[in-house]
From TrEMBL:
<feature type="binding site">
    <location>
        <position position="239"/>
    </location>
    <ligand>
        <name>[4Fe-4S] cluster</name>
    </ligand>
</feature>
<feature type="compositionally biased region" description="Low complexity">
    <location>
        <begin position="20"/>
        <end position="42"/>
    </location>
</feature>
<dbReference type="GO" id="GO:0004519">
    <property type="term" value="F:endonuclease activity"/>
</dbReference>
<comment type="similarity">
    <text>Belongs to the Nth/MutY family.</text>
</comment>
<feature type="binding site">
    <location>
        <position position="246"/>
    </location>
    <ligand>
        <name>[4Fe-4S] cluster</name>
    </ligand>
</feature>
<dbReference type="InterPro" id="IPR000445">
    <property type="entry name" value="HhH_motif"/>
</dbReference>
<dbReference type="InterPro" id="IPR003265">
    <property type="entry name" value="HhH-GPD_domain"/>
</dbReference>
<keyword id="KW-0234">DNA repair</keyword>
<dbReference type="InterPro" id="IPR004036">
    <property type="entry name" value="Endonuclease-III-like_CS2"/>
</dbReference>
<dbReference type="Pfam" id="PF00633">
    <property type="entry name" value="HHH"/>
</dbReference>
<feature type="region of interest" description="Disordered">
    <location>
        <begin position="1"/>
        <end position="50"/>
    </location>
</feature>
<keyword id="KW-0411">Iron-sulfur</keyword>
<dbReference type="InterPro" id="IPR023170">
    <property type="entry name" value="HhH_base_excis_C"/>
</dbReference>
<keyword id="KW-0227">DNA damage</keyword>
<keyword id="KW-0238">DNA-binding</keyword>
<dbReference type="Pfam" id="PF10576">
    <property type="entry name" value="EndIII_4Fe-2S"/>
</dbReference>
<dbReference type="InterPro" id="IPR005759">
    <property type="entry name" value="Nth"/>
</dbReference>
């Protein structure tokens, strides 16, 4: 029989296979009085979800995530728009943790676009080497810094159409900067976001631009930035790529992909990451309301 565990705020998370209750097995008595198990007839396929029902479920997931992660935030350390822009470019093909461990030395050496534009490429490469693809990233950082110096007076522009013209900056990076440095709503479609919205059947699109457009049509603009943080938080902490912790997921009752991962509650809890699992997060300098431990500096521990 399926078991359940209470989630946060009274929610109940399923921890067994949906629909596998005792009603699925009927007791049949033979002529000799012996009891045998008789399988129930095949279950009917669930009805296709209407678009309206999907939108309502999606918005409920967002509300649930807001309660689970009231402290959701960008997981890159930054003090100004320029630092966030640079950190986001560096975050490609690596973790935010590794970026956060690398940027203190980078910004100590090159605190402004003017400083970075004048950097010796080989010296910058050595600093950002831990983030991977350091030669290509150095080229992008030198190019975007020069563009900021020459075309924008050394300031990061606050418009998407200007940001995406900078070397190494696409829509994802632009939306991160706009949403978190300028307060301009944007949806950040990274690998975590794309994976979860497909698992939740909000869309089956693979192209990030198309995913962004679909999700933008589901939620009001005012929710876009925080929705992005909540979904990414959930993807990093519970709904992992290879083995999601379904049995420890507070929104399992709303998830059409429940069961893709570990459904046993105890085993699922062992899969939880960062503050959910009692471990450090990705930021060396997290917000004051973050409930987890700060990440260690590069080379520490």
């Amino acid at each position: 029989m399926s078991s359940s565990t209470p989630g946060k705020s009274g929610r109940t998370a399923r921890t067994g296979e949906p629909g596998t209750t005792g009603k699925n097995v009927k007791a049949a008595t033979t002529a000799k009085g012996a009891t045998t198990a008789k399988a129930a007839p095949p279950r009917k396929a669930p009805k296709a979800e209407s678009h309206l029902a999907m939108v309502r479920r999606a918005r409920r997931i967002n509300r649930e995530l807001a309660e689970i992660y009231p402290y959701a935030h960008p997981e890159l350390d930054f003090r100004n728009p320029f630092e966030l822009l640079v950190a986001t470019v560096l975050s490609a093909q690596t973790t935010d943790l590794r970026v956060n461990q690398t940027t203190p030395a980078l910004f100590a050496a090159y605190p402004t676009p003017e400083d970075m534009a004048a950097a010796v490429p080989e010296e910058m490469e050595e600093i950002i080497r831990p983030t991977g693809f350091f030669r290509a990233k150095t080229k992008s950082l030198l190019g975007l810094s020069a563009a900021l110096r020459d075309e924008f007076g050394g300031e990061v522009p606050g418009r998407l159409e200007d940001l995406v013209k900078l070397p190494g900056v696409g829509r994802k990076t632009a939306n991160v900067v706009l949403g978190n440095a300028f307060g301009v709503p944007g949806i950040t479609v990274d690998t975590h976001f794309g994976r979860l919205v497909r698992r939740w059947k909000w869309t089956d699109e693979e192209d990030p631009v198309k995913v962004e457009a679909v999700v933008a049509g589901i939620f009001p603009k005012s929710e876009w930035t925080m929705l992005s943080h909540r979904v990414v938080f959930h993807g990093r902490r519970i709904c992992h790529a290879r083995k999601p912790a379904c049995g420890a997921c507070p929104i399992a009752p709303l998830c059409p992909s429940y069961g893709e991962g570990e459904t046993d509650p105890e085993k699922a809890r062992k899969l939880l990451k960062y503050e959910m699992g009692g471990y450090p997060g990705q930021r060396l300098s997290p917000p004051a309301d973050y409930p987890g431990k700060p990440a260690p500096a590069l080379g520490a521990g």
